[in-house]
From TrEMBL:
The gene is LOC112293195. It comes from the Eukaryota. Its EC number is 1.10.3.3. It catalyses: 4 L-ascorbate + O2 = 4 monodehydro-L-ascorbate radical + 2 H2O. This is L-ascorbate oxidase. Residues 1-23 form the signal peptide. Residues 32-146, 158-320, 441-550 form the Plastocyanin-like domain. One of its GO terms (cellular component) is extracellular region. The keyword Cytoplasm does not apply.
Length: 579
């Protein structure tokens, strides 16, 4: 190999990024395999970690190096793991995106991710190959502040609540349906899960005869999760939505929540009795256990899509001086699923915390000149009879060679050199789907210079069924500032006048609402190849994403480990001795 990976970057970067005197190396060993689970009482095969579901909590302190070794025991499938919300400063190869940052880890192989957790907060990890996140391949990742530092809020105890939507069909069948000419949509989820638990009404499924398959409402694996609290104390609930499709609304019976953190960033706190979570988002809320009563529902409902067939996901908040009991009160319910105005109001409530004491909080600098503006129009189209999502008339198709390796080694033919358009076709009517609905397939990238400040406007439109739905967009490798949301068609002359340039929240995930636009600003300060995509698992699988690249020379100078290579055209980097 011409290039050696400079593994010693770890310590130097820790000291530089976090300004910390010493940092630990926190190691985990994950054995990944198919397992039988019954998260909502219906048994199915999922992808589990160390024999459990959801995956174990990874916990480290700001500045630590996290090393996670994966052993892939998933017969017939490759795997990768993405560290959602961790920017991977200096370690773009460890982002865990198949086709972009690495080759999948094959059956029987091991692979070690190694990265620094540079910011405190609530994060999670999930598979980023095919639709494996929807197979249950995820878990929480929490980064604490060092002992001598304090968050700008206080609490007595904390709990993690990871949220998901759940289907009974296998993801393999679901993917195949989405890819077929006879398109088969996955439909609404059967259940909503809190900490990997929900309860499906087994009377709705026929008797299952095959050995090992069952729907059993007495199965302990689908007993509601219980969060115990001490009366009078304040708790930090760390929430993360790893949903595959649904936008979610979280409610605690009888308690309001003070929202203090979003996507790992402190925000100007606000109170609410129901919290919207779009897929890919994390939050911390403070809740005081000071109500009359002993056991309260935690309730989870669908936002933005018809929720008639999706029962409320339930958990139990138990005041631990009293025994755990299933509350008999009605399941909590937030605003109606189609009350989009309520969702938009809440989205616009988020503001960056003023005078944030955290030096790593990435403060907004309104005076930094914007070097480029992209308007990304998201439409639903067809390619050779198959339904796809398109960005500026290109549906994203991953290539065989990981893009980062293709660029770093400049492998001829490994990547698509045609730049995708910065703007959509002029005069596109977002209220009517295209007719005929043709689009193009592309694997290109938006190439930037490190240091660029880019405004990205995501323009939502009607899908082929004339419905416009919510799409949560997630950026890898960077946080962005949310400048604003608007209705209808983005107007480059008028719309920016409504931007919040005073205290835009810093995040890595943002929703686009039906027939509206969302504007974000990103400072490209972390070299690599980074997807920016709809976090709906099924939509990204149907091509709803783009890739940003910059600073490849500096990635090349530092090197990427050989362990991310081996597939596609990276094979030509290895030569065999003559037999
Ligand atoms: C479960 O479904 C059956 C049949 O549809 C219905 O009779 C029953 O009331 C349901 N049970 C619950 C708890 O919703
Ligand atoms: C359902 O689960 C309970 C608790 O594990 C068990 O006792 C019972 O036998 C199961 N029922 C069936 C039909 O498998
Ligand atoms: C990549 O390779 C091509 C020839 O295949 C060459 O023209 C180009 O300069 C190379 N780029 C870099 C950044 O080395
Ligand atoms: C998108 O590309 C397709 C296929 O080339 C073309 O037929 C269609 O007119 C394009 N649509 C727009 C809005 O440019
Ligand atoms: C979609 O809406 C447009 C404009 O409202 C209308 O012309 C068209 O017939 C509709 N198409 C479908 C499939 O409903
Ligand atoms: Cu989407």
């Amino acid at each position: 190999m011409a290039m050696k990976w400079a593994g010693s970057w770890v310590l130097a970067t820790v000291l530089a990024v976090a300004g910390l005197a010493k940092a630990a190396v926190v190691e985990y060993h994950f054995k990944v395999a198919y397992m039988s689970a019954a998260p909502d009482c219906y048994s199915k095969t999922i992808i589990g970690i160390n024999g459990g579901y959801p995956g174990p909590t990874i916990r480290a302190t700001q500045g630590d190096t996290v090393k996670v070794t994966f052993e892939n025991h998933v017969v017939t499938e490759g795997i990768t793991m993405h560290w959602h919300g961790i920017r991977q400063i200096g370690s773009p190869w460890a982002d865990g995106t198949a086709a972009i940052s690495q080759c999948p880890i094959l059956y029987g192989e091991s692979f070690t991710y190694e990265f620094i957790v540079d910011r405190p907060g609530t994060y999670f990890y999930h598979g980023h190959f095919g639709c494996q996140r929807a197979a249950g391949f995820y878990g929480p990742l929490i980064v604490d502040l060092p002992k001598d530092k304090h968050e700008p809020f206080t609490y007595d105890g904390e709990h993690m609540i990871i949220l998901n939507d759940w289907w009974h069909r296998s993801i393999v069948g679901q993917e195949q349906g989405l890819e077929s000419i006879n398109f088969a949509w996955v439909g609404e989820p059967q259940s909503l899960l809190l900490e990997g638990r929900g309860r499906y009404n087994c009377s709705n499924v026929p008797e299952y005869k095959p050995a090992g398959l069952s729907c059993n409402q007495s199965d302990e694996r689908c007993a509601p999760h219980v969060w115990s609290v001490e009366r009078g104390k304040t708790y930090r609930l760390r929430l993360a939505s790893v949903a595959s499709l649904s936008s979610l609304n979280f409610k605690i019976e009888g308690h309001s929540m003070k929202v203090v953190e979003a996507d790992g960033h402190s925000i100007e706190p606000f109170w609410t009795d129901n919290l919207d979570l779009y897929s890919g988002e994390t939050y911390s809320v403070l809740v005081k256990a000071d109500k009359q009563g002993d056991n309260f529902h935690l309730g989870l409902n669908v936002r933005g899509r018809n929720d008639e067939q999706v029962p409320t996901g339930l958990g139990i908040l138990n005041y631990k001086d009293k025994p755990v009991q299933q509350p008999t009160t009605p399941a909590p319910k937030g605003p109606a699923w189609n009350d989009f105005e309520a969702s938009k109001r809440q989205a616009k409530t988020y503001k960056a915390l003023q005078n944030n004491p955290d030096p790593t909080s990435h403060p907004f600098d309104a005076s930094a000149p914007v070097t480029r503006t992209l308007v990304l129009l998201t439409t639903q189209n067809k390619v050779e009879g198959r339904i796809k999502w398109s960005i500026n008339n290109l549906t994203y198709a991953p290539l065989q060679t990981p893009l980062l390796a293709g660029l770093v080694y400049n492998i001829s033919g490994a990547y698509d050199t045609t730049p995708p358009p910065d703007y959509p076709a002029h005069g596109y009517n977002i209220f009517a789907p295209p007719e005929p609905p043709h689009t193009n397939v592309g694997s290109g990238m938006y190439q930037f210079n490190t240091g660029d400040v880019v405004d990205v406007i995501i323009q939502n439109a009607a899908a082929l069924n004339n419905v416009s739905e919510i799409h949560p967009w997630h950026l890898h490798g960077h946080d962005f500032w949310i400048l604003g949301y608007g209705e209808g068609q983005f107007d480059p002359a008028e719309s920016p006048k409504s931007y919040d340039l005073k205290s835009p929240p810093t995040r890595n995930n943002v929703a686009t609402f039906p027939f509206g636009w969302t504007a974000v600003r990103v400072h490209l300060d972390n070299p690599g190849a980074w997807p920016f995509h709809c976090h709906v698992e099924w939509h990204f699988h149907m091509g709803m994403g783009v890739v940003f690249t910059h600073g490849i020379d500096s990635v090349r100078a530092r090197g990427i480990p050989n362990s991310v290579l081996g597939c596609g055209l990276t094979k030509q980097l290895f030569s065999l001795p003559s037999p």
